[in-house]
Specification:
The complex is a heterodimer of chains A (204) and B (148).
Chain A: H1 2-17, E1 32-34, E2 41-47, H2 52-68, E3 75-81, H3 90-103, H4 105-117, H5 119-125, H6 128-135, H7 138-147, H8 151-166, E4 174-179, E5 182-187, H9 192-203
Parallel strand pairs in A: 2-3
Antiparallel strand pairs in A: 1-3, 2-4, 4-5
Helix pairs in contact in A: 2-9, 3-4, 3-7, 3-8, 4-6
Chain B: H1 2-29, H2 31-40, H3 46-69, H4 73-96, H5 114-147
Helix pairs in contact in B: 1-3, 1-5, 2-3, 3-4, 4-5
The chains are: A alpha+beta (204), B mainly alpha (148).
Chain lengths: 204, 148
């Protein structure tokens, strides 16, 4: 009997040791790719344009999250630039992405789609600008070419990197899911179906 | 002999319980990260990944707590050994398949390698000792009686 009581006491002690909430996420939403900033679930992705796992996460998971959850304002997806040292064209791609972001979500999504879908091509030849040009109308592309000269774009990338380092991001993709006052860090990819099952428990 | 066995018994229980409690606690901190690790093994259907990520840490914590409490220690040790054998089999199969997956055993970012497999085999030893302790004791007693 004493042993059973000890077992139960240990379980209760452990259960009480789990924090109900994690680190509060950054509430600003200027890099919100989809969904309302006050959505019940927030995903913050730290991504590198030349990283194949980031491509997989965007193409196979996040695009479906944008379609199925962000469009209904159940999930808010925020993308942070985290270009890695060993990827020579990542920073350039990040600059184009941030310039397109200033034009609006549609243009930004088009650039993200194009950069990730054609990653193998431009990563090999360094044709980032041509890849972005294909994704936008000529007028929008001209605007992007002007916006990319803005020094604040480099500042945003530096801020994103600093934010990632502060949150112990060591590799890409790394994403943080904040819901019900709790934050979970995930390093690497996650199949859409698994994420969907998790979301449906909260916002079905 | 009896004192040495008792010390070994407690050492095995405490070490094994500590490992299970730590492992379960760590996984409970981020079920989604553990789910990502399970998904990385490419062994389990997607529909089983979240339930596994939710319940497996609690199984580990329950085993750890039971090992500490000493209740039905032989059966709990057999359960622990069974779970560890399953882990070793899964790690080995994944490594042989050449999948570059995160172990997800004690924290994250630890890739499956011969080292992670050997570590689990080492952890299996105290579980096997606790499960077979009674038999060892009986054999030792029989041997002592025979040699008297």
């Amino acid at each position: 009997m004493n042993r059973v009581a000890m077992f139960v006491a240990l379980l209760l002690l452990l259960a009480s040791a789990f924090p109900a909430s994690g680190v509060a996420a950054d509430q600003s939403c200027e890099q919100c790719l989809g969904g309302a900033p006050d959505a019940p679930i927030k995903i913050e992705v730290f991504s590198d344009f030349q990283c194949p796992a980031c491509r997989e996460l965007y193409m196979d998971t996040m695009k479906l999250v944008l379609r199925d959850y962000c469009s209904l304002d159940k999930v808010c997806v925020i993308y942070h630039e985290f270009p890695l040292q060993g990827h020579p064209y990542s920073r350039e791609a990040a600059r184009y992405s941030l310039a397109a972001q200033k034009l609006g979500r549609l243009q930004w999504t088009a650039v993200l789609d194009s950069l990730y879908a054609n990653q193998a091509v431009w990563s090999d030849k360094g044709t980032v600008q041509a890849t972005v040009a294909k994704a936008l109308s000529p007028e929008d592309f001209q605007k992007v070419l002007k916006l990319i000269q803005d020094p604040s774009i480099n500042g945003t990338i530096a801020r994103d990197i600093a934010l990632g380092q502060k949150r112990d991001v060591q590799s890409t993709p790394t994403f943080f899911i904040t819901t019900l006052g709790r934050e979970q860090k995930v390093v690497g990819g996650l199949p859409y179906n698994v994420l969907k099952e998790f979301f449906d428990r909260i916002v079905k | 002999m009896a004192v040495a066995l008792r010390i070994l018994h407690w050492a095995c229980r405490i070490v094994l319980a500590g490992i299970f409690l730590y492992s379960g606690y760590f996984k409970l901190q981020s079920p989604l990260q553990f789910a990502a690790a399970i998904a990385g093994y490419k062994l389990v259907p997607n529909s089983f990944i979240m339930p596994l990520a939710d319940y497996l840490p609690w199984v580990e914590i329950a085993l750890g707590a039971l090992l500490l409490s000493g209740w039905k220690i032989r059966y709990v040790s057999i359960g622990a050994a069974g779970l560890l054998l399953a882990f070793i089999a899964i790690l080995t199969v994944t490594y042989i398949r050449g999948i570059d997956a995160d172990c997800g055993c004690f924290g994250f970012g630890d890739k499956i390698s011969p080292r992670t497999i050997a570590r689990d085999v080492l952890i299996l030893l105290p579980a096997v000792f606790l499960a077979a302790e009674e038999r060892l004791k009986n054999s030792a007693t029989n041997y002592t009686n025979r040699t008297k």
